[in-house]
Amino acid sequence: MSKEANSMIWDYLVFVIFVIASSFVAVYSKFFGPKETTKADYVFAAGKVSMAAMMLSIARGTLGVRSFLGYPSELFYRGCSMWETLYGMVLAYPIVCYIFVPVYFSLGITSVYQYLDLRFKSRLVRCLASGTYIVRQLLNQGVTVFTPCVALNTVIGIPYWASIMGITAVSIIFNILGGLKAAILADVMQGLTMIAVSVAIIFQGCIEAGGVSVVLKKNKEEGRLDFLDFDMDPTLRVTTMSALIGQLFMSLSIFGCQQNFVQRYCSMDSQRKVTKTLMCNIPVITVLFSLSWVVGMVIYATYSSCDPLTSGYIDEYDEILPFFVEDRFSYLPGILGLFMACLFNGALSLNVSNLNSLATVTFEDFLRPIPYLKGLKDSHQLYTIKAIGVFYGLIIMGIAFGVRLLDGVIESSMLVTSATSGPLLGVFLLALLVPCANWKGSAVGVIAGHTITLWIFFNGLTVDKPPTKILPLSVDGCTNTSFNSHILKPEHRGLEAWNIPTTTPNPYDFNDTEDPYDIINTDPITSNPLSQLYSITYMYYAFIGCFITVFVGWTISFLTESDSDVYDESLVHPIARKMANIFPGKKRRYLEKTRTDDKPRSSSMKPSASNSNFDKKNGVASNSHNEVPMQTLEVYKTKL
């Protein structure tokens, strides 16, 4: 795509202004906002983030920057089936509110994986879960950082290395200066920018297509709005059932078990506020999620008779959105720069949020137990977490450079990360809802869940699968005036085409010739049961991994149960405790209440036994530096 020099200057200017504005958020947060003098201030934003900002931040964290590019092209070329993942996403919110949050919030934990240590009294289980999270987020962030760099290089000519290093540098600045508060402010800024750009594209697209009614008619008549496919074939890429079930389990893993989300919940000053924020977030996430699909609808209505890909004006499916912006907004200098800034800031905000969470998890779960670090002052802990964030920023930058070289394998790596959702969710469900679960069963369950899901995935690479269906396209209406006169075909641009990854955790491989399953496909299609198993869509990986983890973990725990498997009753959901009393057999025994002192609550809360330096009632000193606080009451309660 080629543009006149004057227009390109405006694009560069707008792009630079927005990037500088993003950086200023961190500077403002550091020097003009409330001071972050302790680790709790840095990790939990000092409890000074508004509910509206938190809602938009949580919603933004749900939708990766790849969704901004991927969903419009998904609808254009494959229809709206993937939109139905919204069902599972929305259903996950109330489950998280009433199953996960009540247990987490009362503990005052810094790392969500600290809960597993309290529940199972096992560092092995804790490290398995936190290690899974760290690996998954590093891979995701490498792809997230790389994604906008492709568009930046293709459209306005910014080199890959400059884009990758720029996003990383600004992310590290945010990490050092702002902590969670800066991450939330970046999410808010990016969310508002994305909404503004999407609305502008929708308005322009409706004008180009001839109105809202024309947009709806063309998409409906040409198969882009075919909802509710209840085909139960598990090998189909996405159906209504696989979208609902698969996304539900992935969303529960993301919203309920990921540090970057739980960290936001625990930063609020009351459980009621957390619940209200999450429930009010349902319409917010619905609107934000649907905006990109509406963008796809107006783009399809505009190009329904002259597909830019078929006619040779773009190389990849995901180039359809930047192509539309350059083609239809050429009369408005700077709009392409704003669009590119939206992609840049999208990767930036997600990177900042994850750097903060990755650093916190690494320090709390892996470094803090080291004897040398146990006595660190709070301010020194804060500096250590910031240094870890810088280290992870450099690792993510390296992964982003490597992603450029992987080509079609990108989607394979993303499938691996989606497969980790199931075991991670499974171990938390064991902890929350299975009173008899112990560390032996949970550890074996997590390992079994990872082993089986990865076994299915890697063997799936060797099984031939039918190509993913692409909806009918047309070039019958193409003329010399179909596109703006400054638009050039790829062969005249001299630019290298790269395969752009799309959404997270679900990879959209739009190029059938570069399908990761085609890389090493050797076996013909057979009716072998194992071949059918290997052909299961990745949408079910999270469900399979979760089921295996819970089943194996529950079974092993039942067989290895002992009197030493006691824990604070508040670490299990109240409903699970009541249900356990209904069944015959040995009754559970629990320790008295425990709470860590990592995250201070409001003064209105009643102090728990381990909240003060000395428990006057029981005459026991608490150890505020222990990784898992000492139980202040060694009194067993038998539930009869």
From TrEMBL:
Any single GO CC term annotated in Swiss-Prot or TrEMBL for this entry: plasma membrane
Subcellular location: Cell membrane
TM regions (residue ranges): 12-29, 49-69, 90-116, 160-180, 192-216, 236-257, 278-303, 329-348, 383-403, 415-434, 441-458, 538-559
Signal sequence, renumbered to the chain: none
UniProt-annotated stretches for the region Disordered: 590-624
Keyword DNA damage recorded: no
Pfam families attached to this UniProt entry: SSF (PF00474)
Entries under InterPro entries matching the protein: Na/Glc_symporter_sf (IPR038377), Na/solute_symporter (IPR001734), Sodium:Solute_Symporter_SSF (IPR051163)
Major place of residence: membrane
Comp. bias regions, Basic and acidic residues: 591-601
Keywords for the protein's UniProt record, in alphabetical order: Cell membrane, Ion transport, Membrane, Sodium, Sodium transport, Transmembrane, Transmembrane helix, Transport
Biased composition (Low complexity): 602-612
Topology class, membrane: Multi-pass membrane protein
Family indicated by similarity: Belongs to the sodium:solute symporter (SSF) (TC 2.A.21) family.
NCBIfam families linked: sss
Protein name: Sodium-coupled monocarboxylate transporter 1
Upper taxonomic lineage: Eukaryota, Metazoa, Ecdysozoa, Arthropoda, Hexapoda
